[in-house]
């Protein structure tokens, strides 16, 4: 467990630093040479704040643990008999045992090796926001810096010497490109499941459907009402009322 905990702590330090460094490269360098508008700067600030908030919300929202199931009122008798063979707690539908965390968690999606945490009913929304908002930051960075990226690529072939500022911009845009591709790839797997109210585990192992009737209702069950869907505000209470 200490190894998992250490990896989680390192991720908590590394990710915010990585995003702050990226944001600072863009803001400082582009603001310094005046190639970015005031509104674009404000938007960069907004993106950075919301990304860091989404990350910490995902990281510090604990899962509903199996032992808490005792409090759930809507389980029928048959379901109450299900016991996890690994931790010996009751395991109603949509609870899954995570071997890395060594506990059963509600609506487990997967144990994320990049963020070093379990994605479950409590933090799934924040995890999705941590894909959607960095994707926007990546698009915004590429939009502003595609020429610097091109110059960096070109310099490899022409042996042109770039200034430190140009090199940093090229690095920032390369970083944005990698993060953008990774976020798109993960969203390609996540969004169809979000629209079906299904987790990755349920997609691969179960035949049960938890579809609420329409993709809008399915999305809202994870993201909350449309007004707060794309902001890192909790929807756990209303969701648990609905499903448990
Ligand atoms: Zn278990
Ligand atoms: Zn886990």
Automatic annotation (TrEMBL):
GO cellular component terms, A-Z: endoplasmic reticulum; Golgi apparatus; membrane
Biological processes per GO annotation: protein targeting to membrane
Residue ranges constituting the Palmitoyltransferase DHHC domain according to the UniProt record: 78-205
EC number: 2.3.1.225
InterPro entries: Palmitoyltrfase_DHHC, PFA4/ZDH16/20/ERF2-like
One Pfam family this sequence matches: DHHC
Segments passing through the bilayer: 12-32, 38-58, 126-147, 167-187
One example GO MF annotation: protein-cysteine S-palmitoyltransferase activity
Membrane topology reported for the UniProt record: Multi-pass membrane protein
Subcellular location(s) of the protein: Membrane
Keyword terms of this UniProt record: Acyltransferase, Membrane, Transferase, Transmembrane, Transmembrane helix
Chief location category: membrane
Domain comment in the entry: The DHHC domain is required for palmitoyltransferase activity.
Protein name: Palmitoyltransferase
Record gene name: dhhc-5
